[in-house]
Amino acid sequence: MRTLLTVLFISMLAIPTSFAAELKLKYFGAAGWEITDGKVVVLVDPYLTRAKVTVGPSHPDDTRPAYDRNKAAVSDTKVIDEHITKADFILVHHSHNDHLSDVPYIAKKTGAKVIGTETTTTILKAYGVPADQLYTVRGGEDYQFENFSVRVVPSIHSALGEKHYYDSREYKNPDELEIPLTINQFIEGRSLMFLARFDGKNVLTMGSMNFIEREMDGLNPDVLLAGINGSRLGLYNYDERLVRSTGMPKVIIPTHWDNFRLPYGFSQEDNVKNKLIPFKETVAKISPNSEVIIPQHLGTITLK
Ligand SMILES: [Zn+2]
After folding, report:
1. Measured CA distances, 21 to 38, 39, 121, 147, 199 (Å)
2. pTM for this entry
């Protein structure tokens, strides 16, 4: 009897390991996420400072002083410390300030490995992040780590300035950068996407409203973090090309759709109404089996 109970007890203990882990995705706003399967914690473009700048939309109730884009970008370490305690990896899509400017502080605080372009890792070296924490990539790499693997997907930046935007600058030498950088000195420095493979689920991440359609071939993500902001409307058939080329993912979560110059706690309902609800309706027609989940700031989406 005792043996039977022991066998029963051991097999009960073993049951949970035969199921794929839950995947939890917490939205920081902008293109920022914390994704974990319980084994590995991955941050994507974590930008929590949400600086108010002197250009672009602002809110009369946001009484913080506005930043001059030509003055040093300062991270809000209080808000970062409230929400980020642990990270194993940080994936950075490109080097604009709303993707990278909080990463020097977060990388030093957590010791997380950072994967990004040469411009991204050059900036991080200039900020004193140790070189053995940094992986410089250009797109096409497929790296295996303990409990986690990631394919780096070549991409392109959102078409800004009514499609006239193009910035070919890159940083290569950390000694030439004077720290802290200004918001304007956080240049794009090429753009990436990532196929992040967790226990049981693959997540395809975007940091822009643009992509190279042929690079989506065969990725078949379970979850797509889809760049859904206004600039995509200037691209040919963006929503349909994105949903179809990524294999009509089961779960699609819009990213980079909010006004990231407003602090947490301010309503983003206009953006939900004007960008996300129409996107959800479009996806329902293109791919009725895809579920579009609308994320809330600092809310966690749990996928079984
Ligand atoms: Zn950008």
Report:
1. 7, 9, 31, 12, 6
2. 0.92
